[in-house]
Design goal:
- The complex is a heterodimer of chains A (291) and B (234).
- A two-stranded antiparallel ribbon of chain A has the order 1-2.
- By secondary structure, chain A is mostly helical.
- Chain A is 73% helix and 2% strand.
- Chain B has 234 residues and is α/β, with parallel strands linked by helices.
- Chain B has 2 domains: 152 residues, Rossmann fold (3-Layer(aba) Sandwich), CATH 3.40.50; 62 residues, no CATH class.
- Chain B is built from 9 helices and 10 strands.
- In chain B, helix 3 runs parallel beside helix 6.
- The mean pLDDT of chain B is 94.
- Classes of the chains: A mainly alpha (291), B alpha/beta (234).
- At the A-B interface, helix 6 and helix 7 of A face helix 2 and helix 3 of B.
- The complex binds adenosine-5'-diphosphate (ADP) and magnesium ion.
- The site of magnesium ion has 4 residues of chain B, from helix 1.
Chain lengths: 291, 234
Amino acid sequence: MLPFLLVSGLTTGALYALVAIGLVLVYRSTTHINFAHGELFMVGGFLAYTGVVILGWPYVPSLILAVIGTFILGIVSDRAIFRPLIHAPGLSMVLATVGFSFLLKGIGRLLWGGRGEFTSMPPIVDPSPIFLAGLPILPQQLVVLAAAVACMLALAAFFRGTTAGKSMQATAESTRASYLVGIRVERVYMYTWGAGAAIAAVAGCFMAPLTLLSPDIGFNLLLKAFAATILGGLGSMGGAVVGGFAVGIIESLAGGYVYTAFQDVSAFIVIIAVLVLRPQGLFGTRPAREA
Amino acid sequence: MLRVEGLSVWYGATEVLRNVGFTVPDGEIVALMGGNGAGKSTTLNALSGLLKPRGGAIKLGDRRIDGLHPHDVVMAGIVQVPQGRYVWPSMTVRDNLVLGAVTRRDKAGIARDIEAQLDLFPALRERQKVRAGALSGGQQQMVAIARALMARPKLLLMDEPSHGLSPKIVEEMIDIIRTLHKRGMTILLVEQNVGVAAALAGTAHVLRNGEIALTAPGGELLNNAQLLKSYLGR
Ligand SMILES: Nc1ncnc2c1ncn2[C@@H]1O[C@H](COP(=O)(O)OP(=O)(O)O)[C@@H](O)[C@H]1O
Ligand SMILES: [Mg+2]
């Protein structure tokens, strides 16, 4: 049972890591936690569902629809809600993102189903298990794992190798220096909200066929991503990845060995344990920025 | 080149700059001096577009630049080396320089200019791949200056480039600024170190409580040390 639990833990962990990366991306750059991040994941999943099930499109175009759709949603939300509040006290931003999460949830229920309804998404590839070294593995898990890892590598390349990526990194590290060399900081924030949303959508698209979709799944995912970032050290991109995988595996093992219901509370337990034992997280990075 | 007229800047309900006016002629080094809290950095930040002045005008040549976004100020040719350097600590020295040219599109020119900065600051050449945060204070100051030069400024604003450096490094810094001056760069130099300002500036203005209290040729600063001391509050 252990290998099976590990593989399924790694798979969901990879998706938690993606959601956490988006959360950290926005946090590092703007110092705000986007409490609507889970809802962006949900919208991404449902946009893919719209493509595949409602419109009958193949999987890849549906994924593209979801990514572009949520990217635009992220940008629109920046212009409409977040940018006017960028210099307001932190609490205004918390309320704004929480409010935005309710708005998205409402729109989700309107378009894709009411309270407590779950929608299933057809599998990406043939759902029957294959045997690798004697272990039963769902091909879909491999696809998801590969896609999530590819997405992380692409992001790393983006930050290391492109001016846009470096500008995001620079804005996160010193806003003042970024303004002074002529980076359009507001535009960087805008693309950061968009990119954070798009990454959440990628995770949503790949999670949807593994679990069920409902307009209410956002909060749960935010919680998992939050546990991952707390565990990895809030503000650390690498920490979010490690934390995401760790939360996925802990959850899977807890569900398999301890008690099924334990799976859902394990993220809470991780958050509490980390805050008590090692508040700075595994990688101990404070956000590298000045006042 | 630069003309500042009747500049007034407020932080909330406090007026920090009152009717500040001065010019920086083409190719010259002008020093802006004054004690802590006199308003020197505020003046530079208003020039850079980080602060919106409440009154007055800032002209670069014939063009009004007050109220422009910082990006447009850089595009107009004014670049600031901030007090405290503000290098990007986790990025390599080279990436710091690359981002200094973020407003430019001429790839070949950018590559040439990186080489030119590494010639000007040989200590940085061997440290190109080092994280800027790992450098000494003097080297970080060099990164900050080199980064600013990467935007090809017409006017360089330097906020206390000698602050916190050892006397030997301060001498190096003076040489570098002198080299830039010889190459034709126009510089507005904020300094608290009278020796540095006297060594470099053609003209010096002394700010006190947000107003220009004294203007003197740079060469006379040291003769006027007694007077200056009273103005600098030291
Ligand atoms: N962000 C700010 N908010 C309010 N007051 C400020 C701020 N920055 C500077 N000040 C005040 O403005 C005055 C001028 O500051 P500054 O320009 O930094 O002085 P200097 O660079 O000459 O030491 C000081 O009294 C300082 O306390
Ligand atoms: Mg100052």
